[in-house]
Amino acid sequence: MDLRELYQEVILDHGKNPRNHRFPEPYNREGRGYNPLCGDKITLRLQLDGDTISDIGFIGQGCAISQASCSTMTEALKGKTLAEVEALFGKFHAMVTTDADAANEDALGKLAVFAGVREFPMRVKCATLGWHTLQQALHDEAGEAKTE
Amino acid sequence: MASQVTTQAASSFDAERVRGDFPALHQEVHGQPLVYLDSAATTLKPQVVIDAVDEVYARDCANIHRAVHLLSQRATARFEGAREKVRAFLNARKTSEIVFTRGTTESINLVAQSFGRPRLGEGDEVLVTELEHHSNIVPWQLLCQQTGAKLVVVPITDRGEVLLEAFETKLSKRTKIVAFAHVSNALGTVLPASEIIAMAHASGAVTVLDGAQAVSHVEADMQALDCDFYAFSGHKLYGPTGIGVLYGKERLLEEMPPYQGGGDMIRSVTFEETIYNELPYKFEAGTPNIAGAIGLGAAVDYYSSFDLPAVHAYEADVLRYATDALQTVPGLRLIGTAPGKVSALSFLMDAAHPHDIGTIVDAEGVAVRTGHHCAQPVMEHFGVAATARASLGMYNTKADIDALVRALHKVQELFG
């Protein structure tokens, strides 16, 4: 088992120094995510102008995978429309759960470094915590985002 | 003098030979020999336990306490034989004081609902400690919601100890139940059980001990402790999952209504009136985990076949070695450093989150637990969301600790 498949340089870097690790001002959407299994907690805030995410950031604590995933996600989503966001979420989710080919999609760009997570079923929830929290923020679902 | 005794006792226990009894130890994970350091979650099972369970289904497969046919007689004899083995192991006075349950959790819920619920009300208090497992918190919270009683918490020190002075300040005439872990699952702290029980009794409270982490590491003598209730799980004593024990003093069990209704717990049933069965069957509604109980009996036999003070001394020696070895890892901090602690080593590393530690050492073949260990108030006390935890069984050796330390250096390499 090659751990470098999981812990790629990009993930180690973003895990240690997460980007957009701050709350944007102003913001008009918020989501809270919690993984009860490991205690990872994040709060995600974003500014939605029309159907475009003009700014996004998060504050939270957790493992390298969850922090790096939030970090790269916020980088990827700035300036994206809701339709583009949904498409990315679908591809990302498929990549870390089932579909090996999804990683090859150009659309995922830097996010493709999480393809290795698929080989570590216990860690999939770490990689998707930020994305589930995003869904909650965008769709205004009550309560915390669960990783189930 | 004491250390001399310890050394002699430790030398009479041969862990290398014991390892041969546990088939699960002899496998590779991720291409590495398995190093199992998660016995606080569940212990591995010796072949004699596996065989005992297997034999129930392969030969003595019958329901118990019912039929006159031979298979049922054999199954009943082995099931009740297991109860007697548990009685002897706990040094309880009578087998009627040994109730088979699904595990520690069910045992504690049984006491909360059957003993606590009819007795508690507004103004009463249930006293627990800050280091409890969720299974010794939530049943009491439910009870308090149902009865209007109040849950009161004895704080721990920053070493993870429960001090008698802290306990004494929370204990009052309002305290009706004192529930605490004999040994902490997250920290390994051994609580001063005899003293707490004596103080609780002097104040008129009933005592409930969560013995899940204790039975495989310290002596659990019901008559010496004089506790009122004691709960443990078979699977943390080298036995099967899904079987556990509630010990209760006969006088108290007699006074309590059944926990669940059904078959086997009755003497006679009409639509007008049901007369309950005698102890302990009053608390064992429905067909029990027959194979589990018999497997637990085999586990008790296996464990008791050793010189237990020697086993405990051996484990203490490995724990000391592990404590020293872990502290050589740069940036590693132990959580829970109570004097006289047993089995568990919770720790954090500057370089990596516990979850990442768990994945990386797993790749090296080393199984540790990561997370909050079902003890979130403990995590909160230490201001962390999670820890990594290595925990010992009788089959662990210093070589296992060396493997863990090597794996933790890999964490350093990757994240450092």
CATH topology of chain A: Sufe protein. Chain: A
Poorly predicted segments of chain B? 1-10
* Shape verdict of chain B: globular
How would a crystallographer describe the biggest sheet of chain A? 3 strands, antiparallel
What is the CATH architecture annotation of the largest domain in chain B?
Answer: 3-Layer(aba) Sandwich
- Unreliable stretches covering 5 or more consecutive residues of chain A: none
Indicate the proportion of strand residues of chain B: 15-25%
CATH class of the largest domain in chain B: Alpha Beta
Helix content of chain A: 25-40%
Number of domains of chain B: 2
Structural class label of chain A: alpha+beta
What is the average of the pLDDT values of chain B?
A: 95
How many structural units, i.e. domains of chain A? 1
**Assembly state:** heterodimer
Q: What is the tally of beta strands of chain A?
A: 3
What is the helix tally of chain A? 5
How would you sum up the global shape of chain A?
globular
Explain the overall architecture.
The complex is a heterodimer of chains A (148) and B (416). Chain A is of the alpha+beta class and 148 residues long. Chain A has a single domain, classed as Sufe protein. Chain: A. Chain A contains five helices and three strands, in the order ααβββααα. In chain A, strands 1-2-3 form a three-stranded antiparallel β-sheet, with helices on one face. The longest helix of chain A is centred in the middle third of the chain and has 16 residues. Chain A is globular. The relative contact order of chain A is 0.20. The mean pLDDT of chain A is 89. Chain B folds into two domains: 153 residues, Aspartate Aminotransferase, domain 1 (Alpha-Beta Complex); 255 residues, Aspartate Aminotransferase, domain 2, CATH 3.40.640.10. Chain B is built from 15 helices and 17 strands. In chain B, the strands form five sheets. Chain B has a seven-stranded mixed β-sheet, sandwiched between helices. A four-stranded antiparallel β-sheet of chain B has the order 13-14-17-16, covered by helices on one side. The longest helix of chain B has 21 residues. Classes of the chains: A alpha+beta (148), B alpha/beta (416). Chains A and B meet through α2 of A and α13 of B.
